[in-house]
Design brief:
Length: 140
């Protein structure tokens, strides 16, 4: 298809998504990135959040949660190499809410030897997962 771009979303465990998209949006370290076919080549790191893909002929975007990684953009292909990637439909809201609560407790508890940076990363990931679940509910 002329106005589409090949998209591959890959985690260390498996290929999460492979197909054509009209548009891809995802969280870069410096802000939200939007990619259309024939985009300028680019390599950048991504942070925890959602990868949204507008699939031709589908009413709703395809949504995948990623927990950081690397994005490579070529004029006809987008590759997301994620540290962790989960289809939004497979996210567990209760687990994400519990992870958020535990990270907040760890950050608030200064009496223990807590790796603050790790707790902060866990909190950001849990918040991003909950946002992905909320976004999925809106579009469905």
């Amino acid at each position: 298809m002329k106005n589409t771009i090949q998209v591959d979303v890959v985690s260390a465990e498996e290929l999460i998504f492979e197909g054509q998209a009209e548009f891809v949006a995802l969280p870069g370290e410096q802000g939200e990135l939007g990619i259309y076919p024939r985009h300028t080549p680019l390599i950048t790191r991504i942070k925890a959040g959602t990868v949204r893909m507008k699939i031709p002929g589908q009413a709703h975007d395809e949504i995948v949660f990623v927990k950081g990684g690397v994005l490579e953009v070529q004029p006809n292909k987008v590759t997301v190499l994620a540290d962790t990637a989960v289809r939004a439909t497979d996210l567990d809201e209760a687990k994400a809410a519990e992870a958020k609560r535990l990270a907040q407790e760890a950050m608030a508890n200064t009496a223990t030897d807590v790796d603050y940076a790790q707790a902060q990363a866990e909190l950001a990931s849990a918040i991003a997962q909950l946002a992905a679940i909320k976004r999925l509910r809106k579009v469905r």
